[in-house]
Amino acid sequence: MTGTPAAAPDSGPNDEAADHDEAGHDEAAGHTAATETDGTGGAGTEAEGITAGEWRAVEHGLLLLRRLVLLCTLLPLTVAVALALGLTAGPAWALFALIPLASALWGWGALARNWRSWRYAERADDLLVARGVLWREMTVVPYGRMQLVEVTSGPLERKYGLARLQLHTAAATTDATIPGLTPGEAERLRDRLTELGEARSAGL
């Protein structure tokens, strides 16, 4: 007796909709995973355990100071090149003075982007220092490896009410500098980091 083969179950609209939903869910999950591991900002910051509100920026005076240095360097150079070439080679050659002038205009915006990239955050066991625009860099300074924390302030920095914090550790690769701080913030960080470093070294 020959039996009739059972017909394959028909894939109805409900099954197709379920497959479509599952594929969409997998695609969304893949997008979420990519976002969590993408780059050094945003999601990358959250991966370090630091939210956006816990990062601290450096003072705006640092940008003003660096722009002043830029102008005091390139504007006199522009005038000197224009006069030298204009008097010795002719007016047409004086157009080469536009090169340092263009560099000054480009540097004006580049300094702003670099200034915005500087930030730092204090965690339970270490200090994070982030910087850089094209090449982003983050330095992790463990409190227990700190050997010296000092505050410096040059003549121009004092004029703009700024100070610089320098961190020296047992390994040169974890040394770090935070420019553009107010003197009060720099001293607060120095005292706190020194205290935490001594406590970690003593095993407390």
What does this molecule look like?
With 204 residues, the protein is α+β, with helices and mostly antiparallel strands. Among the domains are: 61-114; 119-201, PH-domain like, CATH 2.30.29. It has 6 helices and 7 strands. The protein has helices at 13-36, 43-47, 60-88, 98-117, 155-159, 183-201, and strands at 56-57, 119-122, 126-131, 137-142, 146-152, 163-169, 176-181. It is elongated.
What secondary-structure arrangement, pairings included, does this model have?
Blueprint: H1 13-36, H2 43-47, E1 56-57, H3 60-88, H4 98-117, E2 119-122, E3 126-131, E4 137-142, E5 146-152, H5 155-159, E6 163-169, E7 176-181, H6 183-201
Antiparallel strand pairs: 1-2, 2-3, 3-4, 5-6, 6-7
Helix pairs in contact: 3-4
Brief account:
This protein is α+β, with helices and mostly antiparallel strands. It is built from six helices and seven strands.
Assign a percent range to the helix content.
Answer: 40-55%
Q: What's the architecture of the domain at 119-201 in CATH terms?
A: Roll
- Tell how many strands the DSSP assignment holds: 7
Specify the biggest β-sheet: 4 strands, antiparallel
| CATH class categorisation of the domain at 119-201 | Mainly Beta
Taken as a percent bin, the fraction of beta residues is: 15-25%
List the secondary-structure elements in sequence, H or E. Answer: HHEHHEEEEHEEH
Write down the overall mean pLDDT: 80
What gross morphology would you assign? elongated
- Give the N-to-C terminal Cα separation: 86 Å
Give me the number of helical elements: 6
- What is the CATH fold-level name of the domain at 119-201? PH-domain like
Q: Point out poorly predicted stretches.
A: 1-47
Strand order of the largest sheet: 1-2-3-4
Radius of gyration: 29 Å
Structural class: alpha+beta
Keywords: Membrane, Transmembrane, Transmembrane helix
InterPro entries: YdbS-like_PH
Protein name: PH domain-containing protein
Organism: Streptomyces iconiensis
